[in-house]
């Protein structure tokens, strides 16, 4: 993606948030619902008459306060807050039982919004207790595992939909580690969890590229579920809370962001428009409609080969974590 393509996308005038009761009768589960894109999306959803909003979060008290505030504005709004920690695979594996304890057996729309950006500093990899690099687990492994963990709930819906939050950075990050893994017939997962080759400045974009690679293939395999990867664009959220304000960033980066970044509310319109309007799977959704990935590499022979290899690896990985979890694949 060129700089001018990025700026053109950022300055595209977005339509207003969807109106009406587009969530009537729908059970919606949203991760990362208490800040940024997730919070703004939650505000949009609260006006759309959902049957139930499920906030799957780590910060229970904050989320309960947010939900109470929304319910004071929308007296018919039904919602619950349930603990979910993407840094802990046991939390994901036990999540269905917590849903059932609340009397929930169906999900119409699953929104994998939660994610992290470890910033622009040179620092070593941070590993989770499960043994994965933290950004890889939070942005790639956990959303995929959660989706498969909740397939039985989604199958109860007449029109199930799964949203993954992507990023335009998937097209601009350095993908050389993936290329080398394919050329050398090595594990992509192992390379991304190797502390010796870790690059903190690149990991966020690379994590979004890996997620995009997987969801492209998942669309083919789960053809009875609408799967959409949504890019909110560059938006002002607390996702950048770990960025270091160096002299260079203050002089060049901060003014660029100030001039071109969207508000979190405008970024959320991309997500809520997909929830309201997408009637089938889309590889990419940006500027509030079906779009295209700026990565020509993904459509190249090498990219297609990498997509298939990584998809197979990830299916094997989540099978190791939860045996039998992929049995519902088409």
TrEMBL record:
Gene3D superfamilies: NAD(P)-binding Rossmann-like Domain
InterPro entries: NAD(P)-bd_dom_sf, SDR_fam
GO molecular function: oxidoreductase activity
Keywords tagged on the record: Oxidoreductase
Protein name (record): NAD(P)-binding protein
Signal sequence extent: none
A matching Pfam family: adh_short
PANTHER family: PHOSPHATIDYLINOSITOL-GLYCAN BIOSYNTHESIS CLASS F PROTEIN, PHOSPHATIDYLINOSITOL-GLYCAN BIOSYNTHESIS CLASS F PROTEIN-RELATED
């Amino acid at each position: 993606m060129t700089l001018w393509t990025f700026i053109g996308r950022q300055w595209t005038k977005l339509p207003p948030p969807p109106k009406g009761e587009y969530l009537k009768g729908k059970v919606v589960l949203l991760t990362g619902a208490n800040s940024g894109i997730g919070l703004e999306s939650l505000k949009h959803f609260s006006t759309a008459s959902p049957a139930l909003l499920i906030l799957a979060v780590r910060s229970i008290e904050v989320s309960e306060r947010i939900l109470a505030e929304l319910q004071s504005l929308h007296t018919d709004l039904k919602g619950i807050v349930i603990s979910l920690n993407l840094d802990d695979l046991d939390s994901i594996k036990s999540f269905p039982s917590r849903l059932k304890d609340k009397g929930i057996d169906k999900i119409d729309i699953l929104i994998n919004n939660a994610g992290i950006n470890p910033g622009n500093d040179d620092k070593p990899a941070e590993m989770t207790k499960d043994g994965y690099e933290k950004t890889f687990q939070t942005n790639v492994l956990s959303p995929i595992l959660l989706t498969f963990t909740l397939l039985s709930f989604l199958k109860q819906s007449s029109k199930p939909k799964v949203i993954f939050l992507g990023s335009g950075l998937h097209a601009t990050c350095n993908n050389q580690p993936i290329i080398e893994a394919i050329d050398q017939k090595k594990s992509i997962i192992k390379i991304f969890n190797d502390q010796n080759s870790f690059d903190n400045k690149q990991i966020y974009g690379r994590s979004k590229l890996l997620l995009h690679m997987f969801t492209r293939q998942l669309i083919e395999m789960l053809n009875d579920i609408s799967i959409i990867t949504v890019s909110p664009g560059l938006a002002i959220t607390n996702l950048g809370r770990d960025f270091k304000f160096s002299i260079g960033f203050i002089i060049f980066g901060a003014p660029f962001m100030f001039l071109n970044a969207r508000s979190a509310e405008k970024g959320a319109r991309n997500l809520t428009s997909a929830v309201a309007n997408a009637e089938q799977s889309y590889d990419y959704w940006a500027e509030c409609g079906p779009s295209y990935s700026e990565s020509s590499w993904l459509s190249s022979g090498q990219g297609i080969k990498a997509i298939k290899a990584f998809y197979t690896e990830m299916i094997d990985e989540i099978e190791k974590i939860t045996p039998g979890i992929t049995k519902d694949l088409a």
